[in-house]
Amino acid sequence: MFRENTKHLQSNLFGVVNRVSKSLQKKIDNSAEATFYRLIFSRIDERLFKGLYSEEASRPNAAINAMVSALILMKLRNWTYEELFENMQFHVLVRIALGLNDLETMPFCMATLFNFQNRLNDHFIKTGENLFEQVFDGLTARQLKELKVKANICRTDSLLVASNIRSYSRLQLLVELILRIYRVLTDSDKSLYRQQFERYLGKSSGQYIYALKPNDFDSELLKVGELYHWIDRQIKPLYADQQVFQVFERVYREHFTIVGDRVEVRSPAELHSGCVQSPDDLDAAYREKNGTKIQGHVISVVETATPENEINLITDVALKPANTDDSIILNERLDNIKEKTPEIEELHFDGGYGSESNDEKMQKEEITPVQTAIRGRESRQEISIERNASGDYEVYCPLQRVKAEPTRKRFKACFDENICRTCEHYATCRLISQKKGRVYYFRAADYLKQRRQRSLEQIPPERRSIRNNVEATIKEFACRMPGRKVRVRGRFKTELFMYGVAIGVNFGRIYRRLKTKNGIDLHYLSGITCLYAKISGRLQNLIDYAGHWMLNRHYRFNIARFMIYGF
Predict the structure, then answer these.
(1) Residues 159, 294: contact at Cβ < 8 Å?
(2) pLDDT tens digit sequence for 295-313
(3) Is the CB of residue 426 less than 8 Å from the CB of residue 339?
(4) Best CA proximity match to 178, nearest among 203, 151, 153
(5) Higher pLDDT residue, 556 or 164?
(6) How far apart are CA 453 and CA 67, in angstroms?
(7) Which residues contact residue 49 at a Cβ distance below 8 angstroms, ignoring those fewer than 6 apart?
(8) How far apart are CA 348 and CA 356, in angstroms?
């Protein structure tokens, strides 16, 4: 049964904060953890998670805002689960960050946290909705509004993330899956089918591969293929509900093909970068970039970049398989970016994000693309295209400017060949010689591409290096991944890491900014939340003390003290 956690709103007269000196209280109040409680913990909308729990009267859930905040702190501080719970038990400031003002209670145990993540994962599989994304969006929208962060100019970049999986060779992956299939069989079926699996049992997949000679690999692949074909017909129908057979079905389809009634091994050329890299992470893909080989995912980050802003915040993050091109990621996220920051007018990115479809989509959304590098080779002499106020296209080079005329599928600009002959680039020019002169054909997409590539030169010089600072944001993600490898596997868990870090990075920037402002009150962002907490906490204390009035006269003095001094 779903129940919101409001216990943290009830101030504890005998809590840790009230039992230390005023100087320590002030240090605690201005600490990063206390600010985290006010800006993150107290603002998590627990109602987002209501659908994870039963609507019938039953045992209530553990504190959701505490579990979500703990996961954020875990990603931000790069803790293991053991380190998280150790800090929750013995670190006073961490307890304050999670709304705990004593040294005894624990809001949840490790098993409860794992079960909560399993519920989130099941919801993600069923609906495709990651509730952590909604937490990130809700917190960020409020921070942008309260801090008055302008989002009319944004920048984006991406980083490759290796999944925490073992690197398998092709044959080793196939053998590993055979061993896992054998493990899920019942004892009776293991005895019945042991003969088919016999050659692979008693050793790991790696040990089996190491014992082979290089010349035996092709014949072994064929033997494995025949066993896969037999498993597909004989074993799979009996264990179709087992998760390992979901992996098996995909691997079988990727590596083998059936010709008639015979199985054949696909050639290496038929295998693509999106093939299963490991049975432990079906979402991971292979990619090689700048000499680095990655089996995992790519994280794309968008953040504000308006020069007038005192701080800039991450507004959108996305996770895709590692073999996904940056331009495709941007195209899929543009609608989300526009929805989160409707005032966006200018987006800065590098050469990997430019594409024809992105140009058309950004023109539709009235976003000016600013590309800081150009992918591919540049022409020796560029033919430039402009669009005037009436919507007509004009094409020009250093010697001529002509008006383009529409054809059935594209536009055509005719140049005077006599003038062209005087140009030093005549021999290498992109113009086509025809009877009526030199002709240049183009589409509307070519104009958009040129506009994107020239946009950097058309903005003020002080804004031309705006994109560079997004590299620092990328490093804030990378520094929490030694060797660019996360500690988890799979898309869902990697997304939890991604959103947790993004929330933590934004919080860190806000806290550092508030701390550097002389004389600023770190409470100013908490607003009504703190006021409500203070009022409701005192009312609850009055009720508690009133209940004990008749039981212990000693409390009369405490009530009088509370009502007079407020503590």
Answers:
(1) no
(2) 999 999 999 999 999 999 9
(3) no
(4) 203
(5) 164
(6) 46
(7) 2, 64, 131
(8) 16
Quote the CA–CA distance of 505 and 509 in Å, as a whole number: 6
Whole-angstrom distance, CA of residue 502 vs CA of residue 496:
10
Question: Phi and psi at residue 298, in whole multiples of 5°?
Answer: -130, 135
Instruction: Provide the H-helix boundaries in 98-242.
Output: 110-127, 131-146, 170-184, 187-192, 194-197, 205-210, 217-234
Architecture of domain 153-160+295-375+451-484: 2-Layer Sandwich (3.30)
- Longest CA pairwise span in the chain (Å): 110
Sheet holding 437-442, edge to edge: 405-406, 411-415, 437-442, 432-434
- Phi-psi region at 202: left, alpha or beta (left = phi > 0; alpha = psi -120 to 50): left
Q: How far is Cα 7 from Cα 537, in angstroms, rounded to an integer?
A: 9
* Residues 394-418 pLDDT 10s: 888 888 888 988 888 899 999 988 8
* Residue of 179, 223, 172, 211 whose CA lies nearest to 197: 179
Q: DSSP code of 287?
A: E
- For 379, counting Cβ atoms within 10 Å of its Cβ (0-12 exposed, 13-18 middle, 19+ buried), the class is exposed
C-alpha triplet 304, 305, 311: angle, nearest 5°: 75
* CA-to-CA dists, residue 138 to 131, 141, 456, angstroms: 11, 5, 33
Q: Using 50, 70 and 90 to split pLDDT, how confident is the model at 55?
A: confident
pTM: 0.82
Cα–Cα distance between 503 and 210 in angstroms, integer? 45
Rounded Cα gap, residues 559 and 542, in angstroms: 7
So where are the chain's domains?
Answer: 7-129+526-548, 153-160+295-375+451-484, 170-270, 384-447
